[in-house]
Structure formats: C-alpha cells, structure tokens
C-alpha cells in the first residue's frame, strides 16, 4: 500500500515558530513517531512525505536516524492541507491503485490501524478511520447561539488514515479545484462528489496534535506504551 503523509503545515496553533511536526515529543521529533508506526505497518510499502522544501534537510536527517527500510520520497507541500495532498497524489508511482492518507500530526496511530485501513480499502472506494463522538455536539451561529443539536449516535469524529481509490481521489481533487471547495479532509471531497465513504473504527488515542496540551498528552501516551 502507498501512504501519503501531509506534513507541510506550520506551528501556528501550537504557538511554535516552526513546523510543529519537528517539535520534540518523548525525545524524538513528532513526525518520527508517525514514521515509526508507518514503518512497522506490514501493509505499507511506500511512503510519500509532503512537506515544505525548507524542512527537507531536517526530514532527511530524521529518516536517516530512524534507519527506515521502506521507500520514502519527499514531495513539495502546498499552502493548504488540500493542496499538499493534491501534490502528493501527482507524485504517486503509476502502479498505485489505492492510497492511504495520514496526517503527520497524528503521531499516535498504531501499525494495526494502518493495516486495518490498508485491508479495508481493497473492498471499497473510500474510507476513514473514525470514532463515535462522546460529547453532545451543538451547531452554533456566529453570535454564539445554538442552532441545533445533532443526534449523537450518528456523529463520528473523523481521523486519519483515510483510504481511497487513487483514480477517484484524483478526480475529486480536480473537481474540488474547479468548484473552489475548501475541505479539511479528503473524505469531504468524496462526499461532495456523491461517492460513498465507509467508516473503519479508529483509535481513541489517535489524536491530532494541535496544541501544547496535545503534545503533553502524546508524551504521556507514548511513555505509557513503552
Ligand atoms: O494544521 P493541521 O494539524 O490541521 O494539519 C493537518 C495535517 O496537514 C498536518 O499533518 C499538517 O502538517 C498537514 N498540512 C499540510 N500542508 C499544509 C497544512 C497542513 O501538509 N499546507
């Protein structure tokens, strides 16, 4: 299976002046934990890291330190996640029929989750890892007034990995550009194009590291696993 890792973001919401994936978590750069999980997932054979060229020297030295055995390519990132994934899709080897997309910032996803998604995408066109929502979710307007309360049993929190048929995902991205759609995950492009996307049960610990608190939680979870 081919895996694309969008890793071209900044450290803005983290309050950092650099790519948050290069910050240290438990004595390793955050992205190193993501890469170690992908390396340990037997289903993954090729990894494309989509990142800003200014970070490539650091990424190369992280890859060398980890002594990763899988084929790894660095691909130039875009100004949004959506654009970065689009760049990644153009760089996929021509024999890639399916692809997994996994945010570099989700450094706690396990090899088992990668393998489950790799297996499941052989039997459908699109899927995402997701977990049932525990909180009651409110839809709120710009004035802070609640507009509605969606039924909780129908709500799932989207994670990555997300898996797709490559040809379909490329088409959906092109349609997204044509229509000016702005989305925060790839499944949303499939949905907007009217293509079915399935759920694979994700992991409660598969957090997207966004804030300094998330970094502290990741430290704790990684130390608990060791
Ligand atoms: O900012 P956020 O954590 O929501 O981004 C999700 C993922 O998308 C991160 O792994 C980040 O590095 C990546 N990203 C990207 N290109 C961008 C912005 C974000 O690859 N321009």
TrEMBL record:
The answer, when asked if Transferase is one of the entry's keywords, is yes
Q: Where is this site: Positions MEP for the nucleophilic attack?
A: 152, 208
- Asked if the Swiss-Prot or TrEMBL record annotates the protein with the keyword Repeat, the reply is no
UniProt keywords (A-Z) are: Isoprene biosynthesis, Nucleotidyltransferase, Transferase
Outline what the protein does: Catalyzes the formation of 4-diphosphocytidyl-2-C-methyl-D-erythritol from CTP and 2-C-methyl-D-erythritol 4-phosphate (MEP).
Q: Which NCBIfam families match?
A: ispD
Similarity-based family: Belongs to the IspD/TarI cytidylyltransferase family. IspD subfamily.
What name goes with this protein? 2-C-methyl-D-erythritol 4-phosphate cytidylyltransferase
Natural source organism: Dolichospermum compactum NIES-806
- This protein's gene is called ispD
